[in-house]
Every structure is written in structure tokens, then in C-alpha cells.
Amino acid sequence: MADKHLQPWKMPPLIKVYEALGAVADSRVRILGERHAAVVSSEGDKTYAVEIAEREVSANDNASYWQGYLGYPGIAVMITRGLIDADLDAGRLPDLAALRMRLRPEETPIPAIVVELAPLAIYDELAAIDVAAAHSDSEVAP
């Protein structure tokens, strides 16, 4: 089974976009650097970390971590960074399907792995060495 943290995001519920817009409007989004940002919860008791790279976004809010879809902190940072301005400027909600495609992990081929099985007789030889070593007080020469 593949690591859940490397899977593409599921489509977030539309309410998450509205929550993100509220975070932006309330000035709860802080850009901390080129890749890092923080978003304070509406209650003010939690701060979520968001990291954005070229084709990747990660966040530590419950939706992003447990539900497999990008939660409002990640969406809020994308809005603040101007990654989805065109839709908002046109009075539309962001095209979540297009964002999902844009931010999905790049597909990499699974490497071919060849395992050569040893002849069964080798196991008998190894077992005999182990038994001989256990019953001998002398050292075995290399």
C-alpha cells in the first residue's frame, strides 16, 4: 500500500474555500518565507503550518492530515500567494479540479527489482555451519 502522504489530494468540500477566504479576510495568514506560511485558526487557539513548493503543498490541519484533502489553511496560503487569483478576480471560486491536477505529485515509474533466489542447497550448508559453530569450542577460520 502506498504512503498516504504521497497520494494526490482528494477534492476538498466547497466550504473549505469559504473558510480559506475568511482566513484571508481576517488577516490570519502569515507568510514566513518563500516556502513556509502559518494560518491562525478562527478561534485563535491553533496555528497551522503550510509549506508550498513548485508542485507540492502540505499542511498540518486535520483535513489535510487525516482526511486526504487540502484544508482551508493550505487554500488560504495559495490565495495569499496569488496562486489562484485569476478565478477570484473573475468573481469565480477556484477551479478545484485544476488545482488538484496542478499540485498532484509527479508520477514516477516504479523501478524494476529483480531478486535472484539462491539454490535451496545453500540453506542446508548455512544451517550446517551454524550447528557446527554452536557445538565447537574452537574458532572457525575465515
Summarize the structure.
The chain is 39% helix and 12% strand. By secondary structure, it is α+β, with helices and mostly antiparallel strands. The chain has one domain.
Summarize the SSE layout with pairings.
Blueprint: H1 14-25, E1 29-31, E2 36-40, E3 47-52, E4 57-59, H2 62-67, H3 72-80, H4 85-89, H5 96-103, H6 120-134
Number of DSSP strands?
4
Instruction: Specify Rg, calculated over alpha carbons.
Output: 26 Å
Q: What kind of sheet is the major sheet?
A: 4 strands, antiparallel
Major beta sheet, strand line-up: 1-2-3-4
Helix content: 25-40%
Distance between the termini: 42 Å
How many H/I helices?
A: 6
Strand content: 5-15%
Low-confidence sequence ranges: none
Order of helices and strands: HEEEEHHHHH
Mean pLDDT: 79
Q: What is the total number of structural domains? A: 1
The oligomeric status of these chains comes to single chain
Shape: elongated
